[in-house]
Write a structure and sequence with these properties.
single chain; five-stranded mixed sheet; signal; Ferric Hydroxamate Uptake Protein, Chain A, domain 1; transmembrane; transport; 16% helix; TonB-dependent siderophore receptor; Plug_dom_sf; 6 helices; rod-shaped
Length: 252
């Protein structure tokens, strides 16, 4: 019974093409010295068929992916050449990289022909709720009033967070307006039109106000120079002793 290879021509060189896991294996079973010269007569043609001729005429085993050579043209190779010289002539117009291992020629896409195309990159993480702008929420899950980010659950004192969304929706443009919306904060009028806020009966003086953790610059005790809320993401109001946080403050 004839085998799949029984119709191959016999002679000094035998070649065959096999598909193994997407690779074409062009086999030539004789000749392992690349320095040996061979007579090559390969006309310009499709690179896939030219490689088979190269393997047959030069006693080479050739490994390549068919997708790497489809649509590419192999240049003509004529004369008595070493396998390396013949390969250089054959591939001079084809953008295909190659290397030798003994009498095996390995082909691949040339580096210049491989643009780096990155797929979509998804970055995922846990949102701790510190920044409120763009959240559309009236509530925040974390605070930085203790100088480090932590959840409200881990804060052992009562804290109210007035978010950017709440300030926008209620048009709270000044700190005095924000304080008036905060539970547990009382407003007291002073002489000459000034005022003061109190928490638990204790006045909130200059050292009680911090901006990004820096004390003494957030509010005027006279109430005449209230900060504009446009540039702030949120206001955090701590009700309780603040000395552990800023080194100064009132029990309120």
């Amino acid at each position: 019974m004839p085998t799949p290879f029984s119709r191959l021509r016999t002679g000094r060189v035998k070649t065959c093409g096999l598909r193994l896991g997407g690779l074409v294996l062009a086999l030539a079973f004789q000749g392992e010295v690349l320095a040996e010269e061979f007579d090559f007569d390969i006309p310009a043609q499709a690179l896939n068929s030219a490689l088979k001729e190269l393997g047959r005429q030069g006693d080479l085993q050739i490994l390549y992916n068919p997708d790497d050579v489809n649509g590419k043209l192999g240049s003509a190779v004529h004369g008595r050449l070493t396998p390396e010289q013949a390969v250089a002539d054959l591939l001079k117009k084809a953008d295909v990289a190659h290397s030798f291992e003994a009498n095996t020629l390995i082909l691949g896409i040339a580096a210049s022909a491989q643009p780096m195309n990155l797929g979509p990159v998804a970055i995922k993480g846990d949102h701790f709720g510190i920044t409120t702008e763009g959240s559309g929420s009236y509530a925040a899950t974390g605070v930085i009033i203790n100088k480090t980010s932590q959840s409200l659950r881990d804060t052992p004192q009562s804290v109210t967070v007035v978010t950017r969304q709440l300030m926008n929706d209620k048009n709270l443009t000044g700190l005095d307006e924000v304080m008036a919306q905060t539970p547990g904060i009382t407003f007291s009028q002073r002489n000459f039109g000034s005022h003061v806020f109190s928490s638990r009966g204790f006045a909130l003086e200059d050292e009680s106000y911090t901006v990004d953790g820096v004390a003494g610059q957030g509010y005027s005790v006279t109430g005449w120079m209230t900060p504009d809320m446009e540039i702030y993401d949120r206001v955090e109001v701590l009700r309780g002793a603040a000395g552990l946080l800023i080194g100064a403050g009132n029990p309120g």
